[in-house]
Amino acid sequence: MLSLWRKWIAYPLGWLAITLLGMLTILLLSTPNSADPPMKHFKAVYTATKVGSQVHVNVEESIRDTLDPSRLGITRVLVPHFDGQDLGLGPITVKDPDGEPYEFTQRTLPNGDVELLIDRNDPRPRYSTTTFDFLISYSLARTVATEGQAQELALNVNGTEWTNGFDTVSAQLVIDPSLAGHLTGDAFCTQGRAGSNETCTITRDGDTFSASANHLGAYENMTLSVGLKPGTVADPLNPMKARSHGWWGIAGLVGIGLAALAVALITRRIVRVPSKDELGIVTQFTPPKDLEPVLAADFLGVPERGAAAHLAWIVAEGMGELTSSWDATAPAPAANLSPGERAAHRSGLRLTWFDPSARPQSKLNGYMRSITEALFGGAGKQRSLDHVRGFSSLSHAQQLRDAALANKMLRSEILFGPLMLWAGYLAIMGYGLYQVWIGLAGLGWPFLFAGFIAVMLVLWAFHLLPVHGRLSSSGREMQRYLAGLERFITTSEGERIQWMNSVETAPRDEESRVALYEKLLPWAIVFGVENSWQQVLGSMYSRFPERERRALALPGATTPSTWADRSHTRRETPSRWDSRPNWGQGAITRGFASFAHTVGDVSRGTGSSSSSTRSSGRGWSGGSSGRSSSGGRSSGGGRGGGGGGRR
Question: 205: how many CB neighbours lie within 10 A of its CB?
Fold first, then answer.
C-alpha cells in the first residue's frame, strides 16, 4: 500500500503518529502511577556570604514527616554539580531538633549525586506512628551563575526528584552584609515540575528573602533566585546549556528534506532527457519493433500511462478482445471524463487476453505475458477493468516492467531511489525522536510541522528522482526514434485517433466487442495525445511518476494533466450539521484542545520525568527556543535541589 500514491499520506501521518507516540510514551513513563502521600513540610534556610571571589551558601533543611512502622527513615539526594560543574558540596550533618545526630549512610550514585540514607532512630516501639523532624546541614561553595548581562544566585529548594509531595515548602535566603551591596533588586520564585514558569509567593524584608508554596506534588519543586550585579563573582558558573536544539533542531529537520531534494534535482540534471536539438529528430511513421508501449511509457518517464497503452496494444494487435456494455456515441474528440463516467466505463469494460501459447504469432513473449498477467489477470478469463487494481499485483507488475526495461539496456539503473527515501525518512524520524528525548523547549507544534514538511520534501525528492539513469547509446537512438514518432502522431494523426478510438467513440460490433484497429493508439496514449483510456484505467503503477510533465517537449504536443482531472464531489447534509453543537463545544473539539494542551505541556517539560528534567541540565525545558536556560526563573533551573523519599 505504501508503494502507491498513498505515500503522500502514509509517510507524513507516520511521522506524526510515531513522534506523538514518543512524546506520550515519555509523558506516561514520567508520570508517577502511585506517588507516596505528601510529607508535612520542607523548610530551607540559606545564608549567602561573599568569600573572596565566590559566594558561599550555608544550607539548613528541615524535613518533617509522619512515618508509619513499616518505614526505616527517609532518603535525601543532593546534587553537587550544575550542568557538569562542581558546586563544592561541603560536610553534611543530620540532626534532630534537640541536636542529637541521626545515623545515616552517605554514598555517591553513578551520576555523581550524593544519597543520604537516614535512619529514624526511634527508641519507641516499631509499631508506633511518629512524626519526625530531620535537620540536614551542608554548604555550597559555588552557587552564582551568569544570567544574561548580570549574575544570578538561584537555589532549587526541595528539588524535582521527590517521589512524594509536600504540604508546604518554604525558604529563607539571608544575604550577609558582605554581599548586600551586590544585589540588583530582582527576585523570583517559581514552582512546579522542571521547566515550569508558575510563580510562587516571594517577599523581602531588608536583606532576607522569603518564599513559600503549598501543596507541591511529586517531582514538583520550588526555586528561589535573586539577581546580582555583574562582577559579583569573578568566576561564575556557566549558564545551563540548552539541551533542546530549539529552532536549529527544527531547521535541521527541514534541512534533511532539502538535502534529499537537492540529491534528486542533481540526479535529474545528470540524467536529463536530451533536448530536441541534441536528438536530431527524424519523423517516424511506424512504432519501434523492439520496444512495447508499456515499457516505452517507463522509458519516457510517464509510467502512469503504461497500463492504458498496454491495454490498447493487446486489443489493437489482436492478442485480446474488449467488450463493453456501453454503445459507441457519435464520433467526436474525446473530452475529459467526469468521475462518474470513468467509473461507469471501467465497470462496463471487460478484457479477455489470449494465451500466447495457442497463438504462435502473438507478441506476448515471456516477460510481456507476466506483465499482462500482473496487470489484467490470467489468460482466457474475462475480467472487468474495475477489478484489476490490487496493490500487490500492481507492485509486481511494476517490478516486471522495470526488469524488462533494464534488460533492454536503454538506460542505466538508479538503485538508490528507495534507499534515499528510507534513509531520509529514518533520518527525520531518528533526529526527531532524539529531539523529543532531549527536550523541545516549548516548540512542540513548530517541531511537528517542520517534521511534516521535511517528510513531504523527502517524498517530493523521491517523486522527482529518475527511476532510470543516463541513456545508453542504444537508448539515445530509441529516444530519437520515439521523438520522431511523437512528431508524426502529434502533427498528423492525433486528432483522428481521438475521433475514432477514444473510450466513447471506438466502434462496437453486434456482440459489444470494442474494435481498436488503430495500431498507433497505444503510442498516442504514451505520448499523451489520447487520454480517455488512461483516465478510465487511472494510474496503474506502483511508484511516483518520474515527472508529471511530458518527457519530450515537441512543438504542437499537448500534455493532458493526469492529476488535474481528479475531482471530488461533496454532498451537503444540512440536517446532520445543524444538529451539531456550536464550535468549540463538541467532543471532538474538546478532545483536540486537550490533545493540543498535552503536546504543549510535553514540549515545555511540564509533563516530563525526574530522569529527564532534573536541575543538572537534562531537562526538556533545557533552554528557550534554543537559548540557554532561563535559570532560576523556571523551576529546577537553580543549583542544588535533588530529591528523596521515604525508606
Answer: 8
